[in-house]
Design brief:
- The chain is α+β, with helices and mostly antiparallel strands and 137 residues long.
- Helix content is 15%, strand content 31%.
- The chain is built from 2 helices and 7 strands, in the order H-E-E-E-E-E-E-E-H.
- Strands 3-2-5-6-7 form a 5-stranded antiparallel β-sheet, with helices on one face. Strands 1-4 form a two-stranded antiparallel ribbon.
- A hairpin with a 2-residue loop joins strand 6 (82-91) and strand 7.
- The longest helix has 14 residues, at 111-124.
Length: 137
C-alpha cells in the first residue's frame, strides 16, 4: 500500500503489446524535451492503473488517449479521457518519477526515451529544477 501511495497508483492490467501514441502534457516542460512536441509512437503494453490519480498530487508528463488502446479489459473499456503514463511528484524531501513506457527491450534502443530517463534521473537527484506543481494545487 505504501509503495502504491509513493508511486501514485497500482498496476491493474495491460492489454496486448501494441503501438501507442504517447503524447506530451506540456511540450515546454524540461523533462520531456527529448521528444517531438507532438509526441511519439512507442510499442509497449499500455498500463492501466487502480487507485491512481485519487490524490492528484503529481505533475503529469506523458499520456495516451484511452480510445486509441486496443483490446482493453471487457466490460471496463475506456472510450474517453486519457491515461497518464509518466509523472513526477514530491514526497517529503524526496522526488518520484514514474514512467510506464519503459519495460521492454525496444525502450532501451530509443535514444529519445533514454534521454528522458537521464533527464528524469537528474531531476530525482536534484540537479534539475522543474515545475512539479501537482494537478491539485
Amino acid at each position: 500500500m505504501e509503495f502504491s501511495r509513493l508511486l501514485g497508483g497500482s498496476f491493474d492490467y495491460h492489454p496486448k503489446q501494441q503501438p501507442i501514441h504517447v503524447r506530451l502534457v506540456d511540450p515546454q516542460h524540461p523533462l520531456v524535451q527529448a521528444f517531438p512536441a507532438d509526441g511519439f509512437v512507442h510499442t509497449d503494453e499500455p498500463y492501466f492503473y487502480k487507485n491512481a490519480y485519487a490524490a492528484l498530487d503529481f505533475k503529469p508528463l506523458l499520456y495516451f488517449n484511452n480510445a486509441e488502446i486496443e483490446a482493453q479489459r471487457k466490460g471496463q473499456e475506456l472510450t474517453e479521457g486519457v491515461t497518464y503514463v509518466a509523472w513526477i511528484r514530491k514526497d517529503g524531501k524526496g522526488r518520484v518519477l514514474y514512467s510506464s513506457p519503459s519495460h521492454n527491450a525496444q525502450s532501451f534502443e530509443n535514444p529519445d526515451l533514454l534521454q528522458f530517463f537521464l533527464d528524469g534521473m537528474q531531476y530525482l537527484v536534484g540537479d534539475v529544477e522543474v515545475d512539479e506543481t501537482p494537478i491539485r494545487k
